C-alpha cells in the first residue's frame, strides 16, 4: 500500500485519506471511510440509494411493464398532474 500512496498525486486527497488509515489499520475500513469528509460520504450514500432505486424500478418495469399499475406504485392521476410544456 505504500507504493500506492507514493503514486498518488497531491490532488488525490480522498484516496490519500483512506490509504493512510488503512496503512495503520489494514482491516479498519469503517475508520477509513469515516476519515473522508461528511459531505463526500453522503454523496456516496446517495449514489448507492439511487443505484438501488434504479435497479428496483428496472426490475419492476421488466416484470410488469409500464401500463399496469400495481399496489405500491407511485401514481398520479392524469387530471391532477402538472405538465410542463
Descriptive overview:
This protein starts with a helix and ends in a 21-residue tail after the last helix. The chain is elongated and about 60 Å long. It has 4 helices and no strands. The protein is mainly alpha-helical. It has one domain.
Cα Rg: 22 Å
- Distance from first to last alpha carbon: 55 Å
Number of helices: 4
Structural class by SSE content: mainly alpha
Gross morphology: elongated
Number of strands: 0
Order of helices and strands: HHHH
Return the average pLDDT rounded to an integer: 87
Q: Tell me the β content.
A: under 5%
In helices, the fraction of residues equals 55-70%
Q: Are there runs of 5+ residues with pLDDT below 50, and where?
A: none
Question: How many domain modules?
Answer: 1
Largest sheet: none
Amino acid at each position: 500500500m505504500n507504493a500506492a500512496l507514493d503514486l498518488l498525486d497531491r490532488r488525490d486527497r480522498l484516496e490519500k485519506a483512506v490509504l493512510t488509515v488503512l496503512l495503520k489499520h489494514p482491516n479498519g475500513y469503517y475508520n477509513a471511510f469515516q476519515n473522508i469528509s461528511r459531505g463526500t460520504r453522503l454523496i456516496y450514500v446517495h449514489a448507492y440509494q439511487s443505484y438501488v432505486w434504479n435497479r428496483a424500478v428496472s426490475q419492476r418495469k421488466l416484470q410488469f411493464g409500464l401500463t399496469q399499475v400495481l399496489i405500491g406504485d407511485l401514481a398520479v392521476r392524469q387530471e391532477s398532474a402538472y405538465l410542463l410544456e
